[in-house]
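Milestone M4 deliverable, item 7.
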Amino acid sequence: MAGLARSVAAAAFLLWMTTLGLAADRVILILDASGSMWAQIDGKPKLEIARESLRTVLQSVPADKEIGFMAYGHREKGSCEDIELIVPPQAGSAGAVSAAADSLKFLGKTPLTSAVKQAAEALKYTEDKATVILITDGLETCNGDPCALGKELKAAGVDFTVDVVGFGLTADEGKQVACLADNTGGKYIQASDEQALQNALVETIAAAPAPAPEPAPAAPPAPEEKPEFNFMPTVVLAQGGDPVTDGNSWEIYKANSDGTRGDYLTTEYGAYKSNLEPGDYIVVARLSEARTEQKIVVEAGQVYKSLFTLNAGTLIIHPRPSEGADVADGAAVVIVYPGVDTPPTYYGDTKVVLPAGDQKVTVRIGQGEVTETIPLTAGRVIDKDIIVGVGHVVANAYYTAGGDKADGSGIGFKVFKAKKKIDGTREEVAYAYGPDSKFDLPPDDYVLLATVDLAVAEQPFSVKAGENQDLKIPINAGVLAITAPGASKIEIFEAKKDINGNRKSLGYAYDEKYQAALLAGDYAVVSEKLDNSSKESTVTIKAGERAELTVR
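Output delivered:
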């Protein structure tokens, strides 16, 4: 299988170099991302072979070549409109194209005719020289006519060609897309199996190279100059990957005789170059949560271009409360990755570089929590939604149903599980204070306890994932405002005494004034003075009304 992947890469590279080097200034590569790419060759999905081949090819493409990347069938299963120019043609785009190919989902149809036409238009083929390279493992499935399109583009283009790689097509199938290349003066390469690829390579490189020019007379050796830098390290996520020059750091330490870290010297960032004095060093390369270190022995007159491989990948998490919902900015994302003792916590959309291995990701939104284990290989990018499955509740208390909203101090809400425990109590789930209190809750049955000063009411409710609720709890209460001139304490009691002749105290204040919300009913108010004298009055509270009482 490895031989086949190398053959695909070599064939695509020779085709690419022939096209880029001789005919075109700007190129768009189109990759078939339809669902058929999940089919296997020798036990390996074709999409993985294509990704690996592209990564190998792109490492050898000159940095000044303007390359774009387009894909179809990677976002929607049944759409003929699912065509996207992911990377516009530009110099130095090899890394972006590799990353785009690695992140594709393969699930849709094959609108290859429309894709080639859109790529030609993006390259302004009627104005400038342009080349489109199509890699497809299937035939047109969206009623396009690739043969007719080839003639149309050739007639209108300045110097336009389409090269087609038929990946896993039969000979008869290949004829149906080869006309697209033939009608534009391009090439069709059959890549059905390893042997066919090898034959294509032999045919491509059969022409003998031009004889090499006579070597020029050797110039006298230039005087040896001391290099400006003697330490120029490079860090990559995975073996063979592009160098990382942004967001990374370098920590430099002196090395102890036993190889451990000694004195800390400096921390540098990005592309690092330095002149280190001769000696032994420990150099630590970091990017996000990934790190690796090496011992470097520096000798006078030598230049060191050390390669640091993090063996890491990139994980992108979008935490959502429910399917189709926006990302929850306040969501906590906790990632337990290989080698970590204290897992880091991120919030909202999360993008982090992590050591390769199984990543245990826990996302919490309100009282909802979900955990997934995500395998991450070195050099790969995984972009994933994690759905917690909660409903959103906004709670407010009203003095009466349809009456005034309670919006002062002393407002609180507690959420309990509706189902009682064996001892008759309920499990408290969450609490909040103030009007417009917000809760994110997993699907279940609950009871909401609302408190406004001394008035308490409860209301049952249920939660469904993705559902938004505005709970309005009528507490059947009014407001009592008490004035007691000269009082040191004001206390409110239930009017009715118990069997022992005692009344239940509801609340008090050490002041001459006291205001509180109370459930509708009768109450006794006692004011006390510093000389221990007291006065008592009674009052009736009506729901939704304000009562004012003066106790003298």
